[in-house]
Every structure is written in C-alpha cells, then in structure tokens.
Amino acid sequence: MKFNPFLEAIKTYESGKDIDLIAKEYNLKEVIKLASNENPYGTSLKAKEAIIKNAHLAHLYPDDTMIELKQALAKKFNVLNENIIIGSGSDQIIEYAVYAKLDHMKAYLQCGVSFAMYEIYAKQVGAKIYKTQSLVHDLEQLCDLYQKHKNEIKIIFLCLPNNPLGECLDKKDVFEFIGKIDKDCLVVIDGAYNEFASFKDKNKFIDPQELILNFQNVVYLGTFSKLYGLGGMRVGYGIASQKIINTFYKLRAPFNVTNLSLKAAFAALDDKEFVEKTLKNNFSQMKLYEEFARKNEISYIESYTNFITYFFDKKNSTDLSEKLLKKGIIVRNLQSYGLNAIRISIGTEYENSRFFEEFLQIFSL
C-alpha cells in the first residue's frame, strides 16, 4: 500500500517514558520522572475537585462553544472571546497554523533547535523547513533567513522560552522583529512556558492582548499542561485576531476537548496559590541544578522554564540516560534533536536530591 510520500521524512515524536513500564522493566520500587516538564506538585486541589464534581458529565459531549473557559481566559488576558480558540493541548493549535498556511510549495522558519512538533506538522504537508545555524533564537539570523526566502516562508515559530533549550528573548526584541515581517507571514509565539519566564524576568513577559493589538499576523499559544499541572487533561489555547481564529475554526473537529478537561482548566485558572507555589519552588530548585552543573563542569544554558538542559563533551547523553533509567530516574535524552545533552524537568526537593545523588555517581565513572 502506498501512502503520502511526505510521511517518509517524518520521525515519530518521542514522548516521555512511562513510569509503570520503567518500574516493571527494571524491577524498581520507585521511579522519578524528570523528563516531560510536568508539574512535580501534581494538579491543583481546585482542579481535582472540579474533575470529581463533574464526573457525572463524562458520558455527555462537552459544550462545544467552550464559553466558560473562553470567558475566563478573555478576562485574564483582557481580550474578546472571539480572539480565543481552545485546543487539545497547544500543539493542536500549531497543527491548525500549519494546515492554514503551509503546503509543499511553502516553508516555515525556526531557530536551530526548538519544539519537535513544528517540524513534524510541517512535514505532514510537505512544507520546507528553514533553521538558523544558531541553536537558540538569534533574531539577526532569523531575519536574514526570512529576507532571503520570504517568498516561501509563510510561518515563523518563536518558542519563548524555548523547548528543549530553555533560553528566552526579551519582549521588546520580539516586537521589533515581528515589525520586520510581512503581514502575510504568520508569526506563532509559543508561550507554553512564558509564565515561568515572566516570573523570573518581567522583560520576557509577552502580553497576548498587546501582541494582537499591535500585530494582526500573530497567534499566541498557551497551555494548561505545565504550570497548571494538567498535562493529562490536554488543554491549550490560541489568542489571535478574529480573522485568524475564524480560519482555525474551519480546521477544528467538534468536541475536541473533553468536559472534564474544560472544567479542570477553568478551576485551575483560579488557583493562584498553587501557581505561586509552583513558580517559587521551581526557580529555587533550579539554582541547585545550576550550582551542580558549575561544580561538575557541565555546560548549560540559563533556563527560563521548568527544566534545564545539560550539555556534554566527553560523556554520551544516551549512555547517561540509560544508566539513570536503571536507577529509576527518567530524563529526556536529546540525541533525537542532534544534541549530546539531557533535559531535566525541575522536580520536588526530594526528586532533585535523588537525581543529584544518582547522577553524580554515574557521571563520575
């Protein structure tokens, strides 16, 4: 049987390893997952209560207008309901963007290393991909590549802060860059970790309202999977001009987000105490990872997210990851990105202590 030839170039997305499977495979009593950037403090109590309270709705299709969550997001960001689309994770909104703008005659642009799903979705439609030589976001290189191939490039992805590297641009530089882009090119600001960045440095904060008021060719993406601890519920959102949102709706399947997911996300938005605790603990524990790296002469990029990436010269990241697995610690090996590096989600104090203890023994061999 023949399939679309574009699919031959696609590598299947490598998701984080499952805790139960690793426990069985290596006969472990305890497994710590520091691979998928999930919230180590679980889900907010308010979100849990909303899931339990609304469990009786599981047999019903959700309200396809998603008005309750839209209104809450509209209030939070001071935009209109019509400026918002809800997706099954923010990566579903990425898919809408790709299908709305790209085909085998067009291209998208990104920095050297960024979220894998940009490339996967683009290859599904046979689109061409341009990447900077710089691994991180270098706006000069991005601008040069755009000007050179502007007739082809119809989407620019800016992951702010960047997954899987962790660096982040200042808002003023981002706005200046967007001002140089033609109005027919869609700029996607992937803000999956932007709450973390803006907590650490207010200069990194990108306000969706300010963004869409200044630029009609931009969509801002957010998610409930990271800070809000709802990775398993799969809720993301896009904020853009009504024209962009209306176009994306033509690509959206009905009932794409479940009843319980919508209720949990709505409740999570209201749990400011849980959010504050997550942000404070994340960056206090992040300092320990930075100190550990400096002490052991491990290279890293300053991170504005809930993870940190370690780079290696003499050690092999695949070998290190596999040895950690046998100790019951799951990290993300970045060999699939062409990097001899591991990405480590910032865990609880106990989880991080376990990582330092086990990794030091492995790294010292």
Automatic annotation (TrEMBL):
One Pfam family in the UniProt entry: Aminotran_1_2
Pathway: Amino-acid biosynthesis; L-histidine biosynthesis; L-histidine from 5-phospho-alpha-D-ribose 1-diphosphate: step 7/9
Transmembrane segments: none
EC identifiers of the protein: 2.6.1.9
Swiss-Prot/TrEMBL catalytic activity: L-histidinol phosphate + 2-oxoglutarate = 3-(imidazol-4-yl)-2-oxopropyl phosphate + L-glutamate
MF annotations from Gene Ontology: histidinol-phosphate transaminase activity
Database matches in InterPro entries: Aminotransferase_I/II_large, HisP_aminotrans, HistidinolP_aminotransfase, PyrdxlP-dep_Trfase, PyrdxlP-dep_Trfase_major, PyrdxlP-dep_Trfase_small
Modified residues (N6-(pyridoxal phosphate)lysine): 226
Keyword Nucleus among UniProt keywords: no
Chain ranges of the Aminotransferase class I/classII large domain: 30-356
Cofactor requirement: pyridoxal 5'-phosphate
Keyword annotations from UniProtKB, A to Z: Amino-acid biosynthesis, Aminotransferase, Histidine biosynthesis, Pyridoxal phosphate, Transferase
Keyword Transferase: yes
Family: Belongs to the class-II pyridoxal-phosphate-dependent aminotransferase family. Histidinol-phosphate aminotransferase subfamily.
UniProt xrefs under NCBIfam families: hisC (TIGR01141)
PANTHER family: HISTIDINOL-PHOSPHATE AMINOTRANSFERASE, HISTIDINOL-PHOSPHATE AMINOTRANSFERASE 2
Subunit structure: Homodimer.
Protein name: Histidinol-phosphate aminotransferase
Species: Campylobacter insulaenigrae
